[in-house]
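Lecture notes, continued. The same structure-token format from the folding unit now serves as the input rather than the output. Read the line below as a description of shape only.
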């Protein structure tokens, strides 16, 4: 709830003026997602931001006590068809790192049996973007997944 409250409120605040003057410039699904932030009150947003700051203050110490990097799947499954309704379950692997403010990168690491790309997510300690980028570069230097394209 903390993540979606902040995400929706900030997306609406950012796009509010453009939505008001040029709603036709947005895909209907995108517009509907952005408008989810409209009813969020300032108090709800402030409570969510305070919770985010609390989580950020402890995330690195808890997650990286014995390791330098975390490797996880980028998404819980293969990509959904373009234009189909988005499912927020696809944010569950990426949202925590955004919420915790930790450096994270997603790189191609393979393909499903039907040829859809699969991503590897690399997350590091706060302020250690260099470690994240180093592993991503080393992985891509040894593989060719980032050069292959799925069938369209």
């Amino acid at each position: 709830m903390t993540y979606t409250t902040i995400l929706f409120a900030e997306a609406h605040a950012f796009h509010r003026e453009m939505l008001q003057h040029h709603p036709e410039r947005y895909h209907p699904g995108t517009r509907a997602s952005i408008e989810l932030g409209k009813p969020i009150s300032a108090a709800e947003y402030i409570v969510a931001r305070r919770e985010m700051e609390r989580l950020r203050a402890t995330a690195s110490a808890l997650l990286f006590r014995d390791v330098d990097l975390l490797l996880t799947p980028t998404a819980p499954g293969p990509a959904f068809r373009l234009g189909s309704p988005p499912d927020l379950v696809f944010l569950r692997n990426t949202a925590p790192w955004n919420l915790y403010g930790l450096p994270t990168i997603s790189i191609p690491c393979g393909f499903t049996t039907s040829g859809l790309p699969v991503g590897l997510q690399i997350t590091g300690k706060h302020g250690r973007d260099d470690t994240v980028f180093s592993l991503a570069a080393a992985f891509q230097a040894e593989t060719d997944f980032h050069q292959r394209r799925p069938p369209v």
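Point for the exam: The helical segments are 2-21, 28-34, 42-63, 95-100, 129-142.
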